[in-house]
Amino acid sequence: MNDVEKDTRMTLENMSQMLKEAQDNKYAVGAFNILDYNSTKAVVQAAEDANAPVIIQTSAKTVIFWGCSAIICWVKELLSSSKVPIALHLDHCKDLQLIAECIKAGWSSVMIDASSKPFEENLALSRQVVEMARPKDVSVEAELGAIVGVEDDIHVKQQDAHLADPEQAIRFCAQVKPDCFAPAIGTAHGVYKGEPKIAYDRLEEIAAKTAIPIALHGGTGLADDVFKKCISLGCAKVNISTQLKYAFIDGFVAYHNAHNTEYNPLNVIDAQFNKLKAGIIEKINLFGSAGKA
Ligand code: 13P
């Protein structure tokens, strides 16, 4: 690690230790996809209020929109007054160049999503990212199977979705050794149309046989008992993105509709912040990570 990387990383943790603790103690760390400084602040302050470890998660699109250095500046500023363990994680990324840029800029964790590739290619690309990341003390999440829905610029249609195969999952994890594993188990990105069919047996088998903390993708819209069951079976990281997108827009619009002659942007930003933070705290409590910092 060079001095800039060391300075940036000083207050960030990678996901490895926080997910192991969660896995051992049967709770999950929330990974919340941020959109800007206000939503990043909502994630950090929610974690502070709940005394919980948390993962600030960035989609590749958000990183490209703002640039690495702006995001690192927000995170550093927020971490300077924070005491809880916080990881900065790059969500679903197919682009090795962007992964390298995030690692260089100071992200403490990255996800390689080569799940659309044939198995051997996914395995080779995921291994390559582990080799890039591990010497920098950056944790890696890798995916197997195809999670339905739209996340960033990855679109998976219902007919193309398929669950992770347990035998392949065991081989994949043994060879890649990711810090966190994202097998497709029937959840979906975006808003659920109808009730999701979660393959609990498969989740249980994969979690037990790989012994790697599992990431539950597609968290928005799942029922409380579904979260609890998935966490009890081995999910140690839960991803929430769409919920924040809705709170971001709805918090803003609701305030303006209720005060439509008042043009005070800071009040609108504050209302948006409060809506984001309340929803994040609710999820942290539900995942059992409150008080675990
Ligand atoms: P949701 O958008 O359904 O919350 O899913 C988030 C996710 O899994 C990000 O990778």
Outline of the structure:
The chain is an alpha/beta fold. It is 51% helix and 16% strand.
Notable traits:
single chain; 293 residues; alpha/beta; eight-stranded parallel β-sheet; two-stranded antiparallel sheet; 12 helices; 10 strands; 16% strand; globular; binds 1,3-dihydroxyacetonephosphate
Which kinds of small molecule does this entry bind, naming each only once? 1,3-dihydroxyacetonephosphate
Largest sheet: 8 strands, parallel
Largest beta sheet: strand ordering: 8-5-4-3-2-1-10-9
- Assign the structural class, choosing from mainly alpha, mainly beta, alpha/beta, alpha+beta, or little secondary structure: alpha/beta
Mean pLDDT: 94
Estimate the strand proportion.
15-25%
Tally of helical runs: 12
Q: So what's the overall shape?
A: globular
Distance, first to last CA: 26 Å
What radius of gyration results from the CA coordinates? Answer: 18 Å
* Low confidence ranges: none
The topology string of helices and strands comes to: HHEHEHHEHEHEEEHEHEHEHH
Helical residues, percent: 40-55%
Strand elements, count:
10
Question: Could you characterize the architecture of this molecule?
Answer:
The chain is α/β, with parallel strands linked by helices. The chain contains twelve helices and ten strands. It has helices at 3-9, 15-25, 37-50, 60-66, 68-79, 96-105, 119-133, 166-176, 200-210, 224-233, 242-258, 265-287, and strands at residues 29-33, 54-58, 86-93, 109-112, 139-144, 149-151, 154-156, 180-183, 214-216, 235-240. The strands form two sheets. An eight-stranded parallel β-sheet has the order 8-5-4-3-2-1-10-9. Helix 3 packs parallel to helix 5 (68-79), helix 3 packs across helix 12 (265-287) and helix 11 (242-258) runs antiparallel to helix 12. It is globular, with a radius of gyration of 18 Å. The model has no long low-confidence stretch (mean pLDDT 94). 1,3-dihydroxyacetonephosphate binds next to strand 3, strand 10 and helix 11.
